[in-house]
Structure formats: C-alpha cells, structure tokens
Amino acid sequence: MVSQGMGNGPASDRPALLAGRAGAYLAGVVAGSPDGSTAGPPARRLDRPFSAGGGTMTHPPSYRQLEHAFDHLAPVYETVYGPHGNRVMAGLRQKNLAVLEAEFPPGARLLEIGCGVGEEAVYLARRGRVILATDVSPAMVGCTVRRAARAGLSHRITGLAIPAGQLDALRPRLPFDGAYASFGPLNCEPALPRLSAALFDLLSPGAVFVCSVMARWCPFEIGWFLLHLRPRQAFRRLGPGWHEAGLYGTGERRSVPVRYFTPRRLAREFRPYFLLERSLALGLLWPPPWLDHLYRRHSRLFDRLEPWETRLSGSFPWRMMGDHILLVFRRRE
Q1: Distance (Å, whole) CA 323 – CA 307
Q2: Cα separation of 153 and 74, whole Å?
C-alpha cells in the first residue's frame, strides 16, 4: 500500500500510540510518548522534504502531502483495493503474505512500515506475530486499529502514526525480530538513507526486512500502452527522479510523487546497513491493479499464466520486473 504520518485527522485517529496491549516490549516505544515512559525528543512533523541521495529529485513529497493524500484514501481503500474490490491486488497480496509468513516465525515482534488499513497486520497477528503498525496517515492507522479490535487482536497489534523517515524516534525496550513494508510505502519515502539507519538500530542483528515496491520495469504496462499508441506512458517509470502516481477511488483527482526502483537501486539506499538476499517479481504476467477490469474480463487466461509467473518470478532477469518487486534484506551483524 503506497502509504506511511502524523497530523490533524479526527481526534479518534490522532493519538500517536493506538491500541493498548501489544506486548510489554512496546511500552514507551516512542521517545517522549504521553505516558512519560521514555525520555528524549518527540517525533517531529516535517513539512519540507528530506534530500535523499542517489538520483535526481525534481518533486519529492513532504510528509504533510503524503498524510493528506492517504487520509483521503483511507475511507475507500478497502472498497477500491481490498480483496473484493480489486482481484489483481488480492492476488499480489496473497503472494506477499506467503513470503512474510515464511520469513517471520510465530511469536516474532515485527515493525510494519505503511500499514494501510491493516490487512497484513491482522493476517500475521492471527498467526501468532506481534506487530507495531506504522503509517504516515493517522486515518490509515485508525483503520488498522479498528480492524484489529474487530478481529479481537488488539493485544497483538499496536498502531502508531509516524512517517517512515522518522522511525529513529522509536525507543522499543527490545529490538524487533523483523520488519516489512508492503506495496509501495518506500516508493514515496523521501528519506530512505535515514530509514535504513533507523532500521539498523531497531532490528536484531541478522533480522530480515521484507519490502515490496513499485518496479521500474513493468512489462505488461509497457506493452499495454504501446498497444494503445501511448509510448510516453509506456516508459513513464523509466525516467529519473520523482513521478506523479494517481490515487483512485476518492472521487477527486489525487496523486503523490513516487520513485520507481530496480533491486540494485533500492539496495544502494540501504547500504551499508542491509544486504539484499533475493528479489521476486510480483505481477510479471498479470495486469497491474489499475487494469483490474481487464483481469476480470479475462481471468481464465491470466489464471493459466500463473504457473509461468511462479516459475519466472525468482529467476534472472524477470525477478527485477513486474508491477511490484518483492525484496528480502538482511540486517548486517
């Protein structure tokens, strides 16, 4: 989910720390939290973008911009991108969850970056993991907390509204056993080097960080736009720097600046703290989620292609392509 904040949402969504009992190790997780359990400066809200190394940036987002965009998306996210609203997204999420479940054993204490409406958090919590779910959007965090409560999982899921680039403000009593960021929060994060350093401090030595990001090379999208004689759109992901990505379903024309990544490019952002172990294509032979109507129209055809996608997704060069790519990093000792 392209997301990550702090802000001026409704009072029910605004508290920095939400959901009460996700394990004693989370007590005082934020420096300067209202319970006074830790000392240190509070997480700051930044209204101007960070400068991130490695690439030309023409229009990086501010955290306020991201917060505002995803707060507006939160009420309709489940309808537009949930399992019933978008079958392509549901298929991608199923593959992503399979990797998360394989990498993080039951009982693991996990940090989620860009929790969205809590689909990954609730899935993992039901299977014995404990999650601190963070997002730049207080409204998204509120959705996650309410989802956890409905599922009877408030004791395993805590929600925190904070940008990914400010996670160095966290003060957990114990290190996390792993972390993950699903479906694009890193694409719109302007402070990846700072996030990398923060994760190094927050995770146990040798811990795994799993992220899925919007890929630079999406063969299906390129072919679709070329077929419709729109070459500029076909190669829109390949340009350097930041690009406008549309957010659909709010009833308004909204977009956020994003960067598209190859595995090598993202691995550079996480050096010297993490090593890239493997990458996997997500949506290599399927249409991207914004073409869900095409999948529904020809679902039998695309379902027949699924075994081929499974075979190709982890092999060179296909593992660098797709609507998204999933990457598994390991924290250096």
Answers
A1: 17
A2: 20
How far is residue 275's CA from residue 189's CA, in Å, rounded to a whole number?
20
Structure tokens, 58 = 């023409």
DSSP 155: T
Q: What is the pLDDT along the chain (333 residues), one digit of tens a residue?
A: 553 333 333 333 333 444 444 444 454 455 443 332 333 333 333 232 222 232 333 478 899 999 999 999 999 988 888 888 899 999 999 999 999 999 999 999 999 999 999 999 999 999 999 999 999 999 999 999 999 999 999 999 999 999 999 999 999 989 999 999 999 999 999 999 999 999 999 999 999 999 999 999 999 999 999 999 999 999 999 988 898 887 876 666 778 899 999 999 999 999 999 999 999 999 999 999 999 999 999 999 999 999 999 999 999 999 999 999 999 999 998
Two tokens, residue 287: 């249409």
* Assigned fold of 17-331: Rossmann fold (3.40.50)
Handedness of CA 160, 147, 213, 69 (dihedral sign): negative
Distance from C-alpha of 188 to C-alpha of 119, rounded to nearest angstrom: 20
Structure tokens at 310: 């499974």
Strands (E), the chain: 17-18, 109-113, 130-135, 157-161, 176-181, 203-214, 243-247, 254-258, 274-282, 324-331
DSSP codes of every residue in 166-186: GGGGB--SS-EEEEEE-SSTT
Q: What is the rounded CA–CA span in Å between residue 144 and residue 289?
A: 22
Identify the H or E element spanning 263: helix 263-269
Beta bridge partners of 328: 210, 278
Q: What is the DSSP string of 85-110?
A: T-HHHHHHHHHHHHHHHHHS-TT-EE
The CA-CA-CA angle for residues 165, 139, 185, to 5°, reads 35
DSSP state string for 44-72: PP-SSPPPPSSS--SSPPPHHHHHHHHHH
